[in-house]
Amino acid sequence: PAEKPKFKRVVLKLSGEVLRCSETGDPISWNTLRTICEQVKEVHELGVQVCIVIGGGNIYRGLSGSKDQGVDRTTGDYMGMLSTVINGLAFMECLEKMGVQTRVQTSIPMNQVAEPFILRRAIRHLEKGRVVIFVAGTGNPYFSTDTTAALRASEIEAEVIMKATKVDGIYDKDPMKHDDAVKYDKLSYIDALQQRLNILDSTAFSLCMDNEVPILVFETSSIKRAIVGDNVGTLVS
Ligand code: UDP
Q: Rg of the chain over CA atoms, in angstroms?
């Protein structure tokens, strides 16, 4: 029998950094993008409704800009939000070339580039089998794309935020430094908070906790396995 996905509607949160080319340092590696999109295509074909919230850290981060270059924080944050639009269009392009229908919705209106974010329309796209890519963050400075993922997941009533990272879950200590680090399968919001595990930034984390949106942390190469419900990553709920 075909694999039965564990989740029906998910928000996949990807940091901009996942797109960076490790060899050349270019902000967007089309090879990496393709490997991610192939996984999105596979889960999409299983009937899972997928939204992507993409970060912009591979291109610009408002906070670093204001610290290192003296850029006004608000200006820098808008530059960061615009970076997510560039990444989102790259996802759109790549997925469409693979035959997956997409719609890009932006929190900052730019009619020639993408649709405005309209909740009911986003849900309709999902029901029609389109992958929805949310860009421009929340549209507000001083927020992050993690918070965007938490917000959109609450709004579209996603079952889970899937946070793809470099590590395959949450450990009791740094697995890069300790051989005996143990991975958690599950963790409560409270435990994650008390142990100061910075899974999402604190605004995003509180939003998830208050609205009871579970967060699954896993490694970027296991997107499909995580959605199908294989025992990968750590679920915070
Ligand atoms: N940003 C913002 N408001 C938002 C989302 C993002 O101002 O609602 C800006 C902020 O400057 C941030 C940048 O966009 O540094 C890129 O987003 P983020 O750092 O979340 O990207 P990631 O780390 O996931 O690549």
A: 17
